[in-house]
Amino acid sequence: MTARNIFVWVCAISLFVLLFVVVAYRRASRPRVIAVVPETTAQEIWESEHAGAAHAAHTFGWKVYWNAPSREDDFPLQARIVRRAIARNVAGLVLSPDHDVVLISAVEEALDKGIPTVIVGSPLGISPGNRLTFVVNDDAATGRLAAERAAKSLKPGDAVAILGLNPNLLSSIARANSFEQAASKLVPGVRFEEKLTTSVSSAEAEEVAEEVVRADPRLRVIVALNVSQSRAAYAALSNMGLTGKILLIACDQDLDLLYHLRSGAIDSVIAQNTYAMGYQAIESIHKQLTGGHVEPETVVPPVLITRENVDSEAVQQVLDMDWRVPE
Amino acid sequence: MSRRSALLRMAGYLAMAAALALLCGVCGWIYLRLGSTPPTHVYEFKGGKLEGYNAYGGAWEVVNGAVHNNSDERGAKLVMGSARWKNYALTADLKFDGAHGDMGVIVRSTNEEEGVDAYNGYYVGLRTTDGTLIIGRSDYGWMEARPVLMPGGVHAGIWYRIEVVAVGCRIAASSRNLTTNQTAWIAVEEHSCAPAGRIGLRSLATGGTWRNIGIRPAGFSDYMEIRSHTGVVGHPEFPRREADYNRIFRFSPSYATSVMSLPAADEHANQLYHTGDLQNLSRNQDHPVSVRGVVTLANHDLYVQDAEGGVFVPSPHMPLLNVGDEVEVTGHAERGLYSSTINDGTVRLLWNGSPTPPIVITPLQAASGAYDARFVETEGRLTAIRQWGSNEQVLELIGGGQPFSALYENQPSSSLPPLEINSLLRIRGVCVLNRKVTREITPFAILLRSSDDIQVIAPPPWWTPEHVALLFLFLIAFALLVQLLYFRMRTWQAGIITEERERLAHDIHDTMAQSFAGLGYQIQGIRSTVMRKDHADVKTIADQLDVAYQLVSKSHAEASRTIAMLNASAPDIQNELPDLLANTARKIAGDQIDIRVAVEGTPFRLDLQLANSLLHIGQEAITNAASHAGPTKLNVILRYQEPQVELIVEDNGCGFDATQARAGFGILGMRKRARVAAGQLQISSVPGQGTRVRVAASSKPATLRAGILATTAERLRALMKWLRVG
Hints:
By secondary structure, chain A is α/β, with parallel strands linked by helices. Chain A contains eleven helices and twelve strands. In chain A, β3, α4 and β4 (117-121) form a beta-alpha-beta unit. The mean pLDDT of chain A is 91. By secondary structure, chain B is α+β, with helices and mostly antiparallel strands. Mean pLDDT of chain B is 84; it is low at 254-268.
């Protein structure tokens, strides 16, 4: 082999090695991406989760892929988004399922690919373990807080409507059960009117609320178990001129609900601390990826928001929606 | 190679690499530079087509040259243009269908997906809820600058003109009410901005119409023209917390009583029903009913569904509605086979909602009637595309053995995306079993809302009967070709063996046979001398024995060379070629002929086959000259001109008529050897003027290549001949 040939070969091999090193370095230096898929991106309750997740991810030098359906019942699209994220080889998955059963297969696909997965908000219909952890709202506490708040306006024989009981979301059932147990203890003899629905249609929810109000003159309290139902109940009461006369306790926060809380049309909002959930979910993934000990299930206490405490730092921290991180 | 020339060569390579890199850089710069400037263009949507646009959610269609989104979906986007467009101004007129929602345009958009804020870019729009002009950054999350109040508010049914200028990391926008000419301005700057991207249309929680969409390159002065009207330059940083927002803005209720375009129906004069309950009403009575639900299809007729089912409302009195609107329908219920119809319907808009997700079903389930009048998604293979009447497009499909059709009403055929028969399609729309709609051609039909409801899952399969037949023919042809090649290879193999034998025969004829013949003559001569008992001739006998010995030595040498050709462990004939030729000439011609052997040029090493061919051609030429021409002079010239080598044997003998003479065994042998060496043989002779044999060939690499080419050409000629004969 001539000196010229040796030179050409050395150059070619050096170029190849350099290219390989550059590509490998770029890959290695690319931040890990965690997919955070809330129930929907159309409600501010999940923007707080976005903020919590983004801030936690920033501390580890990670990035967040944030996307979800525009409706909280669009579970086919949510499953597609999860699968798309899996195909992109995300380092972790944080999911707030729109359906407690349908999303199981998508989550199992993530787990099969070794992607640590954290369920946030409402539990999924499988047990945690094997890279699957839950960081969920303490729905029993939500029910108890609502009961304590409602008890102040209830007397034996009064009726309470529980709207938005959705069999597709385990959290709504847990909240309703907890509320009934606690309220029965606090105010014996109180009656409960449960309304089951799988729809998030505001029109239907409003119709249900109106029916309930008309049907029982002794209705004193409405407990709405989710954002859509709370909006509809507010609209129904507003429409019927009953705001303030029938106590409306809303579960889960949104900007317009808090606006109506400030105006007095809504008695209280029992907020999920989605900021903390998002933050803890990312921490849980970090622990899993670094071999640390991870609790299979973490329960995050809800926060009761009233007109009196809505502007407090503690509450506003829960309602933080600033998902931006320093460049 | 000297050190200097090696360095020069290396420098040459480096200069070439640098020039190449520079060229690539220049090309890249030109590519980026040219591609980053958008053309000045007004989008006209000719033929009702949304070609070159990507829809992410929504139900988009072209109506009278304007783009309409017939859906309340949150964050529906229609994106167009180049992801490399940088500094430009985008103008569009827009009109809200609903009283609650956002409408606007996107600039510098990349990485778009389905989802409310699933893109990276800027959105500039009008918001009815608080009557503001908004601008913000979306990066799979939304962060807006502080909104600016639009004078006179933002209302449905009014045209607004939005102009956005994006220059560097500065974005400025204006919005003008085209009825009152009231205008609002807003500007933002961002440190780390989205530098380039496509343009798009976007709406949130309302449908609407865009028209006069135009783009042009823009500069700093364009930005400043709008910026000069704004008080402050904002940043996408709002709202951080709930208190920030609720301190500034007042929510108007999303409840839409205030926007009813028709007088409210006598509220609750009719009993409120769920759609499922309507099927339990008696057939023969008039039932005034009210139903609440979500609009799944709104053209001149209306389809509404709730959690229990769907209803059909033919030609109702209704405001402008979009898919996703939540409404109350009041009218007279008529039970159908699978779902009910509300006749004389009056529709009241309740909420601007978001479209219901479809129920995913099989065509068989759809045909069962359980999903009549509901929004569904199903899959099928396209069997035909037809047109009913002047403007109803019909896709005929089959899925799971169940035929069905998809109907796209009031649209020209150009509005359909390009579809191939036998493609697998995913269809979304309202499932209808009404025979007036299906025209009894299929059990059910899917009513499409827009062309985006058709999604191609897979192109037509390749295993059509035609393709299978073609494949079969191809396989047969391939098998025949393989067979043919096999036989040809066998023939070629036999040919090669025969050729090699011929070559050996030539070698033996040219060398050993000639020597043995000479040896025979010598032995006969010796015998004659001995028989004559002529003792005076002892010296002659000794001389003859010397010649015989030399002939035996020559034969031995020739045999060694032939063996060397066979096993490639040859004596060094490459270097000794001139000497060997001279010896041959002297041995064959003796002292009778004046022999001159010359070597011209700088000798270089030849490959064994070429050297051997030249040696034998030279030997044959010398032998022929000595045997047949009776020359007095013989010149043997070996000329080296790298990579060319040339051998010339010329005599001044009697010559012959080269045009008339038939090539003998010796000449044929020379030709063959020249061909094997990929050389050219020329024999020129004129009677009385001697003969000149010239062979020229290239040294090793060219010889190999030429040899391969010559062999291939020879094989091809043989194949063509064989085919012609066959």
